[in-house]
């Protein structure tokens, strides 16, 4: 039993995995995201909530060549190499019973991270639920997007729509069934992408839904059906947040969740007791103001691990 003072006896060990690349993005700067999160105090913040935290440093991968798309994909060889590195690192930590926290980097890295989690769940017999917190559906394909930026394609690739090098990362295609993912905060979807989302039957709690029904109702539905055998993965794109409070992202979309809506989202995820892995992606310090977006991201991640503004007892599983 772990008897470190102040740490619950069954607290998980969280491992920070930096992936400093913007190879899948349309703007440079997300490669600096991991260091900005460290500077904002992510490790001590998590440790203050009883976690043992190991910072494994940064993964290595190819430089961003900053070239135009080839056959509908920008930087596909580099994207594959980065995602393979992420896959190996996340899968390795899960195999040791640790909680991996991926520090991106752009959201194309969610491919490697979620593919690793999906493989782990298949092997251990756990159910998988993915919460995709994002302003974008990320369900584009090379036929739908002229930019070819893969950070707009990871959910489609995870559902088997994309090049084999990405859809088969975990040795199983598709890595994810559409009914295993819930998207929250969506407010920017291309027309062709919208049709594909409907065809695949993704469950999307967009900002219209949140405006009409509230964040609490959205999260109740997004978390419905979780149990003690569920592994919950959260893929947190910082552009999920309204740019008024989080300007440090490459693709700012107005009308996102407020600070309190975002806090409630994170607190309800924490209340589920099922969080098993996390991505924090698309933080772009080059576009930030005195690292305020990184500080906010750390604040919200603290809420995922037990910080609450409410003086109440949590429902412990």
UniProtKB/TrEMBL annotation:
Cofactor: Mn(2+)
Entry EC no(s): 3.5.3.1
Family annotation (PROSITE patterns): ARGINASE_1, ARGINASE_2
Gene Ontology biological process terms from the UniProt entry: arginine metabolic process; urea cycle
Catalysed reactions, as listed in the record: L-arginine + H2O = urea + L-ornithine
GO MF, one annotated term: arginase activity
Superkingdom as given in the UniProt entry: Bacteria
Cofactor note: Binds 2 manganese ions per subunit.
Known pathway: Nitrogen metabolism; urea cycle; L-ornithine and urea from L-arginine: step 1/1
Pfam families: Arginase (PF00491)
Keyword vocabulary terms for this entry: Arginine metabolism, Hydrolase, Manganese, Metal-binding
Residues bound to Mn(2+): 107, 134, 136, 138, 237, 239
One GO location term (cellular component): cytoplasm
Similarity comment text for this entry: Belongs to the arginase family.
PANTHER family: ARGINASE
Protein name (record): Arginase
Native source organism of the sequence: Rhodoferax koreensis
């Amino acid at each position: 039993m772990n008897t470190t003072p102040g740490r619950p006896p069954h607290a998980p060990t969280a491992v920070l995995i930096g992936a400093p690349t913007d190879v899948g993005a349309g703007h440079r700067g997300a490669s600096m995201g991991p260091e900005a999160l460290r500077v904002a105090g992510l490790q001590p913040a998590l440790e203050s909530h009883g976690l043992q935290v190991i910072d494994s440093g940064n993964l290595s991968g190819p430089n961003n060549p900053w070239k135009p798309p080839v056959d509908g994909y920008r930087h596909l060889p580099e994207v594959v190499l980065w995602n393979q590195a992420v896959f190996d690192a996340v899968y390795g930590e899960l195999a040791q019973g640790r909680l991996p926290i991926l520090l991106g980097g752009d959201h194309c890295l969610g491919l490697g991270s979620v593919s690793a989690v999906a493989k782990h769940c298949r092997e251990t017999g756990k159910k998988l639920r993915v919460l995709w917190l994002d302003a974008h559906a990320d369900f584009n394909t090379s036929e739908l997007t002229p930019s070819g930026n893969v950070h707009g394609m990871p959910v489609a690739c995870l559902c088997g729509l994309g090049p084999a090098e990405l859809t088969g990362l975990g040795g199983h295609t598709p890595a994810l069934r559409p009914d295993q993912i819930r998207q929250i905060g969506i407010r920017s979807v291309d027309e062709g992408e919208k049709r594909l989302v409907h065809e695949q039957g993704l469950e999307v709690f967009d900002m219209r839904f949140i405006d009409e029904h509230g964040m609490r109702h959205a999260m109740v539905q997004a978390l419905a059906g979780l149990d003690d055998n569920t592994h919950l993965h959260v893929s947190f794109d910082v552009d999920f947040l309204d740019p008024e409070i989080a300007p440090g992202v490459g693709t700012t979309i107005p009308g996102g969740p407020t600070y309190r809506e975002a806090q409630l989202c994170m607190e309800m995820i924490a209340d589920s007791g099922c969080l098993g892995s996390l991505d924090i992606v698309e933080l772009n310090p080059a576009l930030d103001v005195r690292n305020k977006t990184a500080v906010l991201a750390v604040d919200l991640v603290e809420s995922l691990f037990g910080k609450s503004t409410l003086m109440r007892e949590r429902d412990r599983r």
